[in-house]
Specification:
GO terms for molecular function: methyltransferase activity. By secondary structure, this protein is mainly α. The protein contains ten helices and seven strands. It has one domain. α1 packs across α2, α1 crosses α9 and α4 packs antiparallel against α5.
């Protein structure tokens, strides 16, 4: 890829991110203004994460990586060598509402998908090398990587927090399980229901966290959260709604562009034996 083509791709990426962040900022401002994310009335149960790692298992879901996550990663590009690898592991995902975004795959999914892509790009030796390098680097930094595992590619069974990118984990990881209805209540004002619809909450469906993470009562009756935790939920919801609002702007696969832009940096990562994990 020529230098001119790389600059063109970077310009497109920056333009795409600017558009997304502008929409995100507007939605978040509105959600904060109307105090849409509220604590559950009468909640008195306490929650304490015990690092069980169950939320890192992607059997029936993935972890969304939003434009704001990408911006955070890009802002740390010069100080964290591993950032290009994070950007190179994204792939397009679609939820039940036909919202298209980007997510981090499981170890099994990235192994299968990247090997499919390698076969599809037989004419592009460069792309094959980059994709193989990503798989190789993940296996290097994650000693428990298993091509048959449903856990996140950055889940390490032997580390204390399990997450190899804990300081740079996506907002969806940070907010779990605070966006469940036992933790927070989403109340859309009448004047915004046409814009945001309604959020259907199933109070009988608890997150995958083990029962010992809850104390002082029945979690189905409500779990206490702080104002900062509610702010995190608002940020996550605003990010998701950004993907919903900007459907018409998502004709281009950003994950392909990210791999193209950072291919050289990804190849350099493989050559370096010791890369500090975020």
């Amino acid at each position: 890829m020529t230098k001119e083509n790389n600059i063109e791709l970077e310009d497109y990426l920056n333009s795409w991110l600017d558009q997304m962040m502008e929409v995100y900022g507007g939605i978040l401002k509105e959600w904060e203004e109307f105090d849409i994310v509220k604590p559950v009335p009468g909640a008195h149960v306490e929650f304490n994460c015990n690092n069980c790692g169950k939320c890192c298992e992607f059997v029936n879901h993935w972890v969304w990586v939003y434009p704001s996550d990408m911006v955070k990663w890009l802002q740390n590009l010069n100080s964290e060598k591993i950032i290009p690898l994070l950007l190179g592991t994204l792939f397009p995902v679609q939820d039940y509402d036909d919202v298209i975004g980007y997510g981090l795959p499981s170890q099994k999914a990235i192994y299968e998908k990247f090997n499919q892509f390698i076969k599809l790009h037989k004419k592009s030796k460069h792309k094959q090398i980059v994709l193989k390098s990503i798989l190789k680097k993940i296996a290097q930094i994650n000693s428990t990587f298993n091509k048959n595992s449903d856990y996140c590619i950055f889940y390490n069974a032997n580390s204390d927090q399990h997450c190899l990118i804990y300081d740079f984990r996506p907002i969806q990881c940070q907010v779990f399980p605070l966006d469940y209805p036992q933790f927070t209540s989403i109340e859309i004002p009448e004047n915004l229901k046409n814009k945001y619809g309604t959020f259907k909450d199933d109070n009988e469906d608890l997150p995958v966290c083990p029962k010992e993470t809850y104390t002082n009562g029945d979690p189905l009756k409500g779990i206490m959260v702080s104002e900062d935790e509610r702010d995190l939920v608002a940020m996550e919801k605003a990010n998701y709604l950004t993907s919903y609002v900007t459907k018409d702007w998502q004709d281009t696969d950003i994950s392909e562009i990210l791999i193209e832009i950072f291919s050289k940096e990804i190849l350099k990562l493989v050559e370096e034996k010791n890369v500090r994990k975020p």
